[in-house]
Structures are given as structure tokens and as C-alpha cells.
Amino acid sequence: MLERFFATDSNLLFTVARLVLGIVMLPHGAQKLLGWFGGHGWSSTLGFFSSQGIPTIIGVLVILAESFGALGLILGFCTKLSAFGIGITMLGAAIFQRQNGFFMNWFGNQGGEGYEYHVLAMGLAFILAFSGGGAYSLDGILSEKLK
Predict the structure, then answer these.
(1) Dihedral sign from CA coordinates of 13, 16, 20, 23
(2) Is residue 134 within 8 Å of 15, Cβ to Cβ?
(3) How far apart are alpha carbons 98 and 119 in whole angstroms?
(4) H-assigned helices in 65-132
(5) Dihedral sign (CA 72, 81, 119, 88)
(6) Confidence bin at 147 (pLDDT 50/70/90)
(7) Is 7 helix (H, G, I), strand (E, B) or coil?
């Protein structure tokens, strides 16, 4: 069971997908968890989610997925779980943003951002959740040790 969880191959394309998604997601997680990059931190983020009708446990899972999940992707550790968490988070965010339309708000003429970014992140997360972390991942090392 654990061997399948950590299983991956040495495909560099999966490595690129893992690093790109992790690097893009980490600042979003740091905003919510630590208040970095103009974010509001743990308490304020949970308060915002609560004010939007999002249960606290879902808010906690979002913060953990975007911060520790992103770190997991960068390191290639628990890639499938990390990608799954980020993918579900992006699905929720896309549903939450759907009233703003598909496109990002490049020219400031929408009420908010669209969900195109979320769809891209979900696509990368889907690939990684099934493929694993690729080359240069801690999962690959653990998988070899478990064999």
C-alpha cells in the first residue's frame, strides 16, 4: 500500500509540473498561514472563510493544502496527497469564483477574478495525483527503499 502511495518514475515532465504547481501555490499558502506576501494570516483567513459561510474545518484544510501541500510538492514528498489536496482546493475556489466568469480580471472591469487560474492548477494537480512526483522527488527515494 505505501509503495503505491509513493510510487513514481523518473519522468522530468512530472518534476516540472510538481515544481511549478508547488512554487505557484506556496505564496498563496504563506499568505493564509503566516500573513506573508500581503496576506492576513491564519486567524483572519479563517474569519474570512467563516464570513463566506465556509466551515472552519474546510478553511483549515485549505490553508494546510496551500501551504504544506505546496511544500510537499516542491520537495516531492507525499506528492499524490499534496496534489489531491491542492486540486480539491482549486475546485472549491473555482466554484466560489464562478460568478466572476472564466477570465482573470486583467483590466479591472469585473467584480472579481475569474476561475481560469484554478482550472490550470486543477489540471496540474490531477496529473500529479495520478503520476507521482517524477524525478528528484523524495517520493522516488522512499519508493525505492520500500521495494
Answers:
(1) positive
(2) yes
(3) 11
(4) 70-75, 79-97, 116-131
(5) negative
(6) confident
(7) coil
